[in-house]
Structure formats: structure tokens, C-alpha cells
Amino acid sequence: MTTTSPTQERAPRTAGARSFEARRAALAGVVAIPVTPFAEDGSVDPDTYRALLRRLLDGGITTLTPNGNTGEFYALTPSERRLVTELTVEEAGDRAAILVGVGHDVPTAVASARHARDLGAQMVMVHQPVHPYVSQSGWVDYHRAIAEAVPELGVVPYLRNAQLTGARLAELADACPNVIGVKYAVPDAARFAAFARDAGLERFVWVAGLAEPYAPSYFSAGATGFTSGLVNVAPSVSLTMLEALRSGDYPTAMKVWEQIRRFEELRAANGSANNVTVVKEALSSLGLCRREVRPPSRPLPESERAEVAAIAAGWSI
């Protein structure tokens, strides 16, 4: 016999939230985080960025997150973040749902969210607050201020705080029915399972925010989508894992997991120091963009580039 928490006994979605069904569906898949390519002079390279977006779209990706962490959100200037959003919306057209990363202080996040809305984006992902002192009620206040400023948009908190309780997320959604999904990026599948059930498993779309390495375990606990930076390199690999997870074919999903394991280990090493670096190095090896990243990231040394190139070359791209 199963039991439900008081949170789960609430109506899963309000009438207002039901208007977001298409956006909820867009989150239940591969949520791609495009890289932001830089030109030789260090500026954002619009033509290369558009080409990388077309490659994702042609590869079957239908949800894009400009200004995500793989896009070096914190290393971009405000005008560059606006440019990336504009390029993504324009290039994708009606081929993909756009989930724009926003963050920093509340006025900056609200301005970015409104900019995204005015361009025609459907959703915003609110980056984890980087303030060193985050209270649980303050977390709710921060996200509520942003969500209330753009009631037309679906809002997806990017959750990396292991101290936050599911009840706090439910509190936020009670006030803001446009909070429709969660990018959950705490590296603990058991904690995720409990958090999702405390917040309301059916109330939100749960996106495994630590990408393919965590997708199988998080799907088994209730996630229906996962983010991906690897998808920039090999869209078919990410989509193969998604198809397997959707059908409950965990042996096939784990074969993909084994295939991408070393690549993701390189990205995660040393506190994810080379998370974006490895992706850009793989793209560089394929002739798709320059390898340069911005500080505090750093390009791979020459001695480590061959392994990344070999991995990328070995995938069916």
C-alpha cells in the first residue's frame, strides 16, 4: 500500500498551470544547453552559434536553454546574454521550445526574463542563487519575485541546494502556478526521490539537472527529462538514452551511459573545472567551433586534447 504526503494530496496543478501543458511537455525530454562560441577576438561568434543551433535542431533536439552553465552564463556580459537569447529565439523559430537562463540579482533576473518573454521565449530557468547566504524562505522570495514578474512564462528553478526542502518548492508553486518544472542538480538520487515526493511528484516536471550520467537513476525516481551539454557534440547519443529511458529499457540506457562515461568523467574532474572546456574541445576537434573558454574556465592543455578528440570521433555523429 502506498501513502501520500500532505503536499501530494493537493490538486496536482491549478487551472492556471494547465495552460502550460505544452511547456511541461517540452521539459520532459533532452533539454539541450548550447555552448557559446567565441570568435578569435574573444567576442561571441553569432554565425558559429547559429550553426551549432541548427545542428542541434536538425539532430532532433526540441528544447534549448540559451544562457545555461554550459553556455558560460556567468562569464557573459549582460549585452552578450541578451544577444545569445535573441539569436536562439530567431534561429529556432517554431522548431524548439526556448528555456532562457536568467539569474544574478532580482532586478537583473526580472529584466532578462521580460526580455525573453518579449522575444517570444516560452520559459525561463532561474539559475541557482550565488549569494553565499541563502535562507530557505529567501530562496522562495527570490524565485517568487521573478516568477510573478513574468506570469506568462513557465518558470524552472535550477536547484543545487541540498538543504532546501520539498515543502519550500511547494510553497513557491502555491504562490506562482507558472513554476512548472525543476532542474534538480543535487548529486544524490535518494535525496531527489524524497524531495520530489515532498514537493509533489506529479505537480512538476522533474528534469535531471546533472545530465546523462545521472539520468538513469533520476528517471527511476520520477524524472522525465534531463539536461545535456554532451548533446552539443552528439545529439543522437543523448536522444538514444532518452528513448531508452522513456520505454523503461534501462539496459540500453546503461549501454549509452558506458559509452559516454569517460567523456563525462573528464568534465566532472576537479570539481567540474573542465565541464565546458571538454565540450568545446570535442567540438573543436570536429571543426565546429573554437576551443576557447573564458576565465575562470581554461582550455585543455595540448597533452589532454587527443583523448577528447578520440572519444568524439568514436561516436556516431
From TrEMBL:
InterPro entries: Aldolase_TIM (IPR013785), DapA-like (IPR002220). It is an enzyme of class 4 (lyase). Gene3D superfamilies: Aldolase class I (3.20.20.70). The keyword Lyase applies. Its EC number is 4.1.3.3, 4.2.1.41, 4.3.3.7. One of its GO terms (molecular function) is 5-dehydro-4-deoxyglucarate dehydratase activity. Belongs to the DapA family. SMART domains: DHDPS (SM01130). Transmembrane segments: none annotated. Keywords: Lyase. It comes from Streptomyces althioticus subsp. attaecolombicae. This is Dihydrodipicolinate synthase family protein.
